[in-house]
Write a structure and sequence with these properties.
Pfam families: HTH_3, ThiN. It comes from Natronorubrum halalkaliphilum. The protein is about 50% helix and about 10% strand. A seven-stranded mixed β-sheet has the order 5-2-1-6-9-8-7, sandwiched between helices. Strands 3-4 form a two-stranded antiparallel sheet.
């Protein structure tokens, strides 16, 4: 009898730790520093370095594992990612890989063939749960925020009211289903400052824009607001974004809805301001990382 958790401990974690140790050493960290970052002993780091720890090639060669290891190694080496944040990101990936039909689920069913032959409607590796969905949204949002924090010049795109990068669950119905930054992102002495980790239900304005756009047919799961500039609109258009103007002096849901209905392909919504209303641009996208990439291209 083998539980999938045993497979994670016996094969996934040694593989990922080995990859991380090697990547961190390549980035100039000493064995002692690698041990501190990974929470393991120096002798364990030495064993990883000399190939004395058995690893799983299928796990090591998975593109998602490789991508996350490289991203975390960069963040841990620079100090932009804490060990706790790295742990969360790895946990999210593990949950994804345990989902029915994915890598860890496949390895588990190969190790215990009886699972695949079990006649019950119950599946050990069940489809996405609400918790896993929420974890993935927050993980994507954290990655998008890190990209923006590290993007030189992003602070110059933050409006006076502050920016917020938000992302929602696939079946979002209200602001509680949208995650964002509590207190928004502000320009503090020329540096974009994210005051705390993202949470669900903390964004009213940008979340409302995203929800209104989705309610009227927009295929988007994330959004951000930046300062308005006609040159930014021109550059977004040149890069392939469809744009639509709306009037924020009206009800926000109605205004966004009318703009989307006039241009269903719009991924950039903007209003040019009014009495007491700051002009803003809203960029919509499939996820937080994609939006961060779009914003970085404007800098």
């Amino acid at each position: 009898m083998q539980f999938v958790e045993e497979l994670v401990v016996d094969e996934f974690l040694p593989t990922v730790r080995s990859q991380l140790a090697a990547e961190l050493r390549e980035r100039g960290l000493t064995q002692s520093e690698v041990a501190d970052v990974l929470g393991i002993s120096q002798s364990a780091v030495s064993k990883y370095a000399h190939g004395d720890v058995a690893t799983n090639d299928r796990i090591a060669d998975d593109e998602r594992v490789e991508a996350l290891v490289a991203e975390l190694a960069d963040g841990l080496a620079s100090g932009d990612v804490t060990p706790v944040q790295a742990l969360i990101e790895i946990e999210v990936l593990i949950r994804d890989l345990e989902t029915g039909g994915d890598l860890l689920a496949q390895l588990h069913e190969e190790a215990v063939p009886e699972l695949a032959d079990h006649g019950s409607s119950f599946r050990v590796h069940d489809p996405e749960s609400d918790l896993r969905t929420s974890e993935r949204v927050l993980s994507s949002l954290r990655r998008g925020l890190r990209l923006l924090e590290n993007a030189s010049g992003f602070a110059g795109l933050i409006p006076a009211v502050g920016s917020n990068l938000v992302a929602c669950t696939p079946d979002a119905e209200g602001v509680d289903d949208v995650a964002g930054v509590p207190g928004r992102i502000f320009d503090v002495k020329g540096k974009a400052t994210v005051p705390s980790d993202p949470e669900f239900g903390v964004s009213e304005h940008v979340a409302s824009v995203l929800l209104a756009a989705r309610d009227h047919g927009a295929d988007a799961s994330a959004a951000i607001n930046i300062r308005y500039d006609s040159e930014l609109i021109a550059r977004l258009t040149e890069s392939g974004h469809a744009t639509a103007e709306f009037d924020e002096t009206d009800d926000i849901a109605s205004s966004i809805g009318a703009a989307i209905e006039d241009n269903p392909e719009a991924t950039v919504l903007y209003q040019t301001g009014g009495m007491g209303i700051e002009p803003l641009i809203y960029v919509l996208g499939p996820d937080a990382e994609s939006i961060a990439d779009t914003i970085r291209a404007l800098i």
